[in-house]
Each structure stands twice: as structure tokens, then as C-alpha cells.
Amino acid sequence: MELVLSPEEAAFRDEVRAFIAENYPAEMRVPNPETDLTKEQMLLWHRILYRKGWIAPLWPKEYGGPGWSITKRFIFEQETTRAGTLPPLAFSVTMVGPVIYTFGNEAQKTKFLPRILSGEDWWCQGYSEPGSGSDLASVRTKAVRDGDHYIVNGHKTWTTLAQHADWIFCLVRTDTSAKPQSGISFLLIDMKSPGVTVRPIITIDGSHEVNDVFLENVRVPVANLIGEENKGWTYAKFLLGNERTSMAGIGRSTRYLERLKKIVKAEIPEDDPAHLEFVRDIARIELDVLALEATELRIVAQMARGIDPGPAASLFKIRGTEIFQDITELTHRAIGNYGLAIREQPVSANHFMPGPDYGHTVSEKYLNSRKLSIYGGSNEIQRNIIAKAVLGL
Amino acid sequence: MDIQFTEEQELLRSSVQRLLRDQYDFDTRRKIVASEEGWSRKHWSFFAELGLLAAPFSEEIGGLGGGPLATMIMMQEFGRHLLVEPFFETVVLAGGLIEDFGSADQQVAYLPDIISGEKVWALAWSEGRSRYDLGHVSTTARREGGSYVLSGTKAAVVAAPWADSLIVSARTSGERGDRNGVSLFVVDRHSPNLHLQGFRTIDGRRAAEVALMNVSVPASQMLGREGEGVAALEACRDRAIGALCAETVGAMGELNAATLEYSKTRKQFGVTLGSFQVLQHRMVDMFIAHQEALSLMQHLNLSLASKDAARSRLASGAKSKIGYAAKFVADQAVQLHGGMGMTDELNVGHYFKRISSINIQFGDPAFHVLRYAQLDAAA
To answer: Which positions in chain B touch A339 (Cβ < 8 Å)?
Structure first.
């Protein structure tokens, strides 16, 4: 399904397509880009997009954005996800960047924005805590003012790729007497500061993607406070709005469905009764994708006309993640007995994996995708948002 | 329908419970899984001493005569503790095949070492694209004098890296997919020309691809009658399903208990998770799923114990229904534990993975619901 494009937009789409085909680094095409790339490899495409001026589609032109229309941004998103390119550093570009240029002061903009665009600084997100998952406003990490510094103590968790990060943006409590939402500040912390410790959290697929980050008497210059003290909740909500925009994941689901079809074709002969069952299940998921894609296009078209999408992001998050979980599960079923095997982490060519190549990452993807309905605001929370904000319940 | 367990059966259950509670907590299991071999011979010898490896076998061949119900009782506890040792492969699969189809000589030759814990076995029935079809066998066995020569590759053989002996299905006649013409052979794991490539499984065990490149096996090591291997494997699969369903029910019970406990203690928005009605209903559905699975699992094992004529169809029905129920419980247990459910540290994800693995072994729920329907049509 395609948007109706003007000739200029169509030319732009072709340009993006050609650019990806010519420039996406071959060494990033590994079995599982989320686990198999080094930090340097992960940054390759980021830097290519930076040099092209395409690294930050959302950003205003004055801060280094390309100045695209909503439609062009959508085209870019569609083309890059369809091609399976690794997204640029999301916590840097999509999340903290817009907070800094929207709420930060001039010194902060000058110091941080260029390094975010170039990929010199890798940012991670210090939001969740062991006691604060869905209920983010209950964060307990404390920042106490001491002259020109804050002294920060606390424990952040589920911090994605903190092991690579130069900086962490944190929600910290600066007023313990106020209501939960009113006593929070938004602080930028250098990961090299004394007192910052990163501990890996290994997930059920064996990978090391997330971490605990411990903050013990970390001295943070007051100059690293975004906006006003105790107004951090406003900035945090602004950021979470950005986090959920691209969660429909149509491009990714489409790619994984194509792969699933190939696997079914190779694995299950047409005279096996299971074949028809797979064909029907795949068709059902394809219709799910089609309906979600149509919804996304409808909302993008409305946004292009200036209509506020409301909590559409919650709808995309719920359906996008459910669909992708269905695909990874069906793919796991498709490879039959080889679904028992899983690659050892860290990945090495020395470890034997049985069965055809296309099956080698299927188990880990199946297990890993369980996280999708949990993170970024669990799907239960997203349903609460729609119930409240859309249905008025 | 509820099973009134005998005193002997209750004793078996409580002794397994005590052993696992004292000797097989989650940290111990983690160390065992991470060890070089990946299973614990020390614990295996405990099982032997306690008579667990003898429990299901009939008394005439040195067992304790417990049959499928003894297996059920033990597997349920093993499921609760995520036991990785190859009880299922050695006692239920190989032991069951030898008891049911082995000659008197073979029973004498093999069963004492299984019962004493000396030897570990694995069953190599699946092949590259066999999926769950027991007759999809390309591996061949060619008669040469007093021996058979086996050639082919068996796929994803769980516990093969640990095994001393394998039971291998190979074709003595007919074409791949034919129901007739498959025979079973006892193959020494260290036979010349037999090659294993080991790998880890999602549930923390070890499996292997087994390549047989003209492996010579004495004709006396054919198990059961020539050409009737598929029927033997079908009977074996029925008993296997009884055991796996019991293990699944044990795992489901633990997941439900852990989830309920978590929902009563974990607070968000100033209240416990358990106070949200949407989660209460979810947990009620998990409870119902477990109750139904438990009932069906017991029903199946009673049917296996009495050799009921409908047991094979019931086995497929149970594998499907319990498989779907367990998948629901496992999905929701991870979901309700939030990020913690995704971690390697917490046991919840490990139950999830074991249930995912059981749902593949000997056929997934979709395969078995179809077989259940087809057997009805055939009746």
C-alpha cells in the first residue's frame, strides 16, 4: 500500500531508495543486527546518514534537520525500515535531541546537538527503576543540590545499550515533598563520572542489550539540568510521545513476513496438511499488517493536513508489537524441530548451529520479541491511555 | 474424576519433592546448565539411589512397577524444578521402547544399566525436514551379513551429547514417508563413523545433529520387528506425551504461583498489580488453563496406564490442548512480570523456554489437534 505521492515526493522516494542501495554498509548485514554488531559497526550507517544530512528527520532545519514535510519524513521511515537498515541511535536522535532543542538552553544546544548528530556521543535513557516501570512518576533516584552540582544517588534499569553510552539522560527526584510528578527534574549525566556503574542484564534470548545503571554520589554540574528544576515530568512526557511514534513497524513486519513465506516454502511441502495452516495464518497476519498500515497512512495524511493524531501512537504500539510477536512465533513454529536450537552468546563462528541458515536466529528473535509488549509503556498501559484519552472512560 | 493416589504413589511424590527441594534449587540448576557437560551425574546417581530410574518399569524386569502414573508423578515435579537431566530421554523414551519392544535378551542387556544410572540414552527419530512425521525417514539400514550398516543424518537429537547409547530409526525398506519399512536400532554412541555436532537448546539442554556414515550395527541390536519401527515409535510417543504433559503442568503451576505472588507484592501507581481488574481476569484465565491442563493430563495418564484403546488419540488431544494452555500461561507470566520476566536471572523466563521447547518436541499443538481430528474421522 502506498501514499498518493506528488511527483516531487515520488522522486524523493526513489532518491532514498537508491541512496540506501548504494550506501548501506555490507558489513552491517549480519544475521541479527541487534546483537551481532560492534559499537563501531552500529555507528557506520549513522555516520553515513549524518554526512548526507539525513540523520535527524524530525529536527528543525536550524538544528541540523533536513526540513522535510511530514509526508517526506514518513517516506524516509518507510524506505529505511523496508530495506532493513539499522535505525540511527534512537535514544540520541529521536529522544534526547528534541528535548534539548525544545527545552535546553543555548549552551546545552551548542554543546550537545552537533555531537548527537555526528554520533560522537552515544546516549542512553535513565528512566525506569526497579520500583518504577509503568509508573514512571514514582522514580526515586535522588539529586540533591550542592553548590554548582547535584549529588545523584539511585538505580536505573532496563537501560538499553548503556554499555556503549557516553551520556545518560535521567529522571531524578529533586523535591521529595511535592506530588510525584512535580518533584522530578531532567538531568544529563556523563557516563564517565565517578560513581556510575553499568551492570549487564542478560535476557532470555541470551543477549546483552539492557543494563542496570547504578549512580552513587555522582556529581553532576547544575549546567546539565534541562529547563527548570522540578519540571522534568513535562519534558519526559514530551519525549515519550516521540518514543512511540514509529512503533507500528510496518516495514519490519513486512520484511519478516516475506522471510517467513520463504521458510514455509522451503520447510513444508504443499501436500503436508500443515502447509495450508501456515498459508492461512500468514494471510491473517498479512491482513493485520495491511489494516495497520492503512491506519498509519490515514493518520499520516491527517497529520499532513495539520490534524492532531491524539494517542494514535498507543494504537500503533499495541498492534505493531502484537503483529511482530505473531510473526516471530509463527516463524519459530515453521522451522519445526530446529526451533529447539539457539545461538550461543556472544555470537561466534566457532559455535555450531544446526539446520538451514535462515533458521539460525529464529529462536532468539522469538524469545526476544516477548519484550515488545512490555517495554516503552506496556500494552496494558497503552490500552489505559486509549480508554482514557479516546474513549473518555 | 480425580486420582486417588496410593500410599506408594504419595511416597514417591514426597520423596521426589524432598530431593528436589533440598538438592535442586534454581541456583543449583543454573550452575548445572552452565557446566561443561550441562547435566549433573551427581544428581543422576541420587535419582538412581532413590529408585526413580526404576519406578516406571515392571517388576519382572527389575523395576518398581509404577507404570505411567509413576512417570507422571515424577515428571510433574521435574517440571516444577526445570530438571535438565535426561530422565525423559533415558527412562521414558529409550527405557519404554526397550520394555515394550525389546527381546528378553535386550531387556537384560540394557535395562539394568538404565535403572542403576550407569547409562544414559537418547532417541534419534527426527530428520532435517521430517517435522513431526515419524515415518519421514531417509536414513537407511542395509543388511550386510550379521550386521546392518546405517547411513544418514538424524536431526536435533536432545541429550545425544550425553548419551552412551542411541535408538536410531532407519529405513530397511520402502521410501521416505512410508509407514512401513522403518526399523529401530540400538547404536553405541561411540561407534566408528558416528559423528555428533552438539548445540545448546533454548531450554538449557544439549542436543546434537547425528551423522551416521556407514555405521555397522550387529543385527541383534535391532529393537522390535523389522519394518515396524513407526508403530513402535507411535506407542513411544503416546507415553512421551503423557510424561511431557505432566512436566508441562508442573511448570504451569509454578508460573501461576510466581505470577500471583508477584501481583500481590509488586506495586505501581500506589497499589498492587493484583488490584487491577484486567490483570485479575488474566490470572483467573491462567488458573483455569492450569486446572484444565491438570485434569486432561491425569486423564491421559490413566488411559495410558490402563492401555485404553483410545489413548493415542487422547495423547494428541492432550498435547494440543495442554500445549496451547501452557503457551497462554507462559506468555502471560512473562508479560505480568514485566521486564523481570524477560531476564535470565528470574526463573519465569526459563519456564517459558521449557514450555516452548516441549511444544516442539514430538509435535506442536497445531500438529496434534489435526491428528486428533483425523483419528476421529478414521474411527
So the answer is: 202, 356, 360
- Give A338's contacts in chain B (Cβ within 8 Å): 155-156
DSSP A352-386: ---S-GGGTTHHHHHHHGGGGGTSSS-HHHHHHHH
Helix (H, G, I), strand (E, B) or coil at B6: coil
Q: From CA A154, how far away is CA A196, in angstroms rounded?
A: 10
CA angle centred on B357, ends A339 and B51, rounded to 5°: 140
- Closest chain A C-alpha to B297 CA, distance in angstroms: 23
Task: Provide the residue-wise pLDDT of chain B in tens; the chain has 379 residues.
Answer: 578 999 999 999 999 999 999 999 999 999 999 999 999 999 999 999 999 999 999 999 999 999 999 999 999 999 999 999 999 999 999 999 999 999 999 999 999 999 999 999 999 999 999 999 999 999 999 999 999 999 999 999 999 999 999 999 999 999 988 999 999 999 999 999 999 999 999 999 999 999 999 999 999 999 999 999 999 999 999 999 999 999 999 999 999 999 999 999 999 999 999 999 999 999 999 999 999 999 999 999 999 999 999 999 999 999 999 999 999 999 999 999 999 999 999 999 999 999 999 999 999 999 999 999 999 877 6
Show residues of chain B in contact with A127, CB under 8 Å.
none
Taking only the tens place, the pLDDT of each residue in A160-200 is: 999 999 999 999 999 999 998 999 999 999 999 999 999 99
Residue of A nearest to B201 (CA): A341
Q: Are B342 and A157 inside 8 Å of each other by CB?
A: no
Cβ separation A138–B345 shorter than 8 A: no
Contact B155 A338 (CB under 8 A): yes
Inter-chain contact B342–A274, Cβ cutoff 8 Å? Answer: no
Counted across chains A and B, CB pairs separated by less than 8 A come out at 129
A22 phi and psi, to 5 degrees?
Answer: -85, -25
| Residues in contact with B214: Cβ distance below 8 Å, sequence separation at least 6, in sequence order | B149, B150, B151, B193
Tell if the CB–CB gap between B334 and A370 is shorter than 8 Å. Answer: yes
Residues in contact with B280: Cβ distance below 8 Å, sequence separation at least 6, in sequence order: B274
Chain A contact set for B334 (CB, 8 A): 204, 370, 374
Q: List all residues 6 or more positions away from A382 whose beta carbon is below 8 Å from its beta carbon.
A: A314, A315, A317, A318
Find chain A residues with C-beta within 8 A of B156's C-beta.
Answer: 337-338, 340-341, 354-355
- In the structure grid, which three cell numbers stand for residue A8, read together? 516531487
Q: Do A134 and B197 touch (CB under 8 A)?
A: no
A49 to chain B, closest Cα gap in Å: 32
Chain A residues in contact with B267 by the CB 8 A cut-off are: 131
According to DSSP H, which parts of chain A are helical? Answer: 7-23, 33-36, 39-52, 70-82, 90, 97-103, 106-118, 232-243, 250-267, 273-304, 312-334, 362-368, 379-389
Per the CB < 8 A criterion, the answer to whether B206 and B36 are in contact is no
Secondary structure of residue B201 in the 3-state scheme: strand
User: Within 10 A of A365 (CB to CB), how many other CB atoms are there?
Assistant: 20
Q: Which of B132, B269, B367 sits opposite A135 (nearest CB)?
A: B269
Measured between alpha carbons, how far is B207 from A206 in angstroms, rounded to an integer?
Answer: 17
Rounded distance between C-alpha atoms, residue B163 and residue B300, angstroms: 29
* Short-list A70, A29, A69, A79, CA closest to A49: A79
Q: How far is CA A34 from CA A133, A366, B284, in A?
A: 23, 14, 36
Distance, in Å, from the CA atom of A321 to the CA atom of A139, rounded to the nearest integer, reads 26
Global ipTM: 0.97
How far is residue B224's CA from residue B107's CA, in Å, rounded to a whole number?
A: 12
| Beta strand spans in chain B (E) | 121-124, 140-144, 147-158, 165-171, 182-188, 194-200, 206-218, 222-223, 267-268, 271-272
Taking CB atoms and an 8 Å limit, are A133 and B339 in contact across chains? yes
